[in-house]
Structure formats: structure tokens, C-alpha cells
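Extended Data, panel c. Modelled sequence:
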Amino acid sequence: MAPSIRLGRLFGIEIGVNWSLIFVFALISWTLAATVFPADVPGLAASSYWVTAIAGALLFYVCLLAHEMAHALVARRSGVEVAGITLWLFGGVSQLAGEPKSARSEALIAIVGPLTSFAVALVALVVGLATSSNALVSDLFIWLAYVNAALGVFNLVPAFPLDGGRVLSAFFWWRSGSRQRGVHNAVRIGRVFAYLMIAIGVLQLFTGGVANGIWLAFLGWFLLSAATSEEAGVTIKTLLRSVPASAAMSSPVVTVPDWITVEQFITGVAPSHSFTTYPVHDPSGKLTGVVRLPDLVRVPRGDQATARLIDFAHPIASIPVTWPEEELATMIQRLGGTIDQRVLVFNKGELAGIISPADIARLLTIRQRQASAQT
């Protein structure tokens, strides 16, 4: 989950929020101001409810950040690099740029999140009881205690990507000696819980609980898709472990001058090659960007004779890079979502090759066949 807005760093870890956070923030604020607080503490001005509700929504995401920060700090202490934390629609995501070294490390990284939520719930409950002289403030902290306790319990459900699913995966990893097998077994159990959530959600739709039913079914669907994605990711990393980037790259790379026109490129360069992506360079030979054939063929015919490649090039600084010796599994984990683009391979400062998603897919097919032949 990529952050839409970066907020800064905490303990050296980058913190960001996704745009979906706005929806949940507004929903929490409205629910507290229009429903929870008026029912628990009646007779106050609407402005009091709304100010307290907005403060409550902010504190709720501080609690979520504490949950994710606990994951990140324990991961870093266990030798796993942390790329950042993103708060979004379903709470938060700690983006780990590496893998736990052992089943014990994975279990510790996972379980510390719910434990932190339970600790925050206890602190909120104590504050709520201590501020009983101010009914609205007390109610806010009692609510925070409840939602943090619920968050801790929900995250212990043994289904990916919840913490309980990761603890279960760590258990199976410890029993089998294989992280891939551990994830596979945990995902199978997690799917049962996801289907149960969907079934209960559908049942609620027909028994009058429309809002709760839709939300529960949607959560179940999310867990199903996330579990499938997690298992596929672990399989890919296992197959590509110890495989260098050079094994997947296409070489040599065709580079073209960035000053030629789109028409010159389409009529004179593109027909001679089967590539769809081309690095471009300036008169000194320095790479300035990357152009993609699908972008160029969409340029109106009347403009192709005057428009130059540099006008449609993606800046070179925005293109992900690697080096021939980097493991493909590490590269994919490091780049995350950018793997749907081309990756430039540099060797001692010189462009040595280019990797496309098709190159990786082809190599995966070969590795899968080799693995199947050995079993």
C-alpha cells in the first residue's frame, strides 16, 4: 500500500497516509458526533460533540500508528529492514523490505501489534476512569479503550494479512521448516475464516443488517484477496531466491536520441525492434529518460513530425534501477508496486540491461517447471 501523503519520519521510519484514510476519518467523526456521544452524554452543544469527535478520530489513528510502529520497531530489531508505515482504509500497514530470519522472529513481529493495542486500550480505560468528572472526555477515552481492544482481538483472527494469520504462519513454518509451506497452510485456514465472514455478511443482508452485512462481506473479500496475494508473493520470492537480476534482464539495450521526433522514431526505429520501452539520451550520451511505444503511438499524427521524444519521456530519476548481482527476490521486495514498470540494470555506472514484468514472468515459469521436475 503506497502512501498518498508523506507525513515525515518517526524513529527513522517514514510515515504516510493513503487517500482512503479521509473516508474513514470522516465516518468515525460523524459516528461519534452524531450517534455515540449524544447517546452517552446527552444535552451538550453540537459543536462540543464535533470537536471531541474530531479529536477522537485523530487519537484513533495515533493508536493505529502505535500498533504499526510496534511491528516496525520489533522488525528492525530483528534485522528486517522497514520501508515505512502507511495508514489507510483498514488501519495501517508496516511495509517490510525484507523477510524475518526465523519463525520466532516472524511470530514476535506479528504478535507485538495486538499486544500494543491491548496496552493502549488499558491506558485509555485508566484515563477514561480518571476523567469521570468530564463526562464527554471520559466517554471519548472509554470509546478508545473499546476500539483498541476490538482492534487487538480482530487482528488475532488467523487470516492474512491480519497478525493472527502471520502468527499461525510462523507456527507452521516452525513445524515444517519452510516459510513457504507455513504461509500456504496458514492461508488455507485463513480462507475458511474469510468465507465465514462473507457468509455471515450475506446472511445479515437478508435479515435487516444491511450496513453491517456489506461491511463484513467486504472485509471477508479483502482477506481472501490479500491472502492470495501474500501466498503468491512468498512463492515468487522462494522461486527467485539466489537468482541474480542478470538472469532476467534483456541485453543489449537499444537507446535512442531524445531529440528525434516521434515520427522519426515510429517510422525509423520502432519497426526494427520488438521492444516497447526505450531509454533515451542527450547529445552527450547521458540518459535522460525512458519512452514507451504505447505513449508515442497515441500522439496525434499532426504533432508527430514536430514533437520530440524528450517531450514524452519519463524522467530517468523516476525509473527503478538495479544491478546485475542483486537477487531478483530482493529487488521485487525493494521495489514493490513499481515492478509493473521496466527496471534498468546498471553495471559500474553503465546501462547493462533492462528487466520487464514479462522477463520475470518467463523466468518464473522456467523455475516453476524446474521445481516441479525435482518433486
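Residues 179-240 form one domain. This feature is highlighted in the accompanying rendering.
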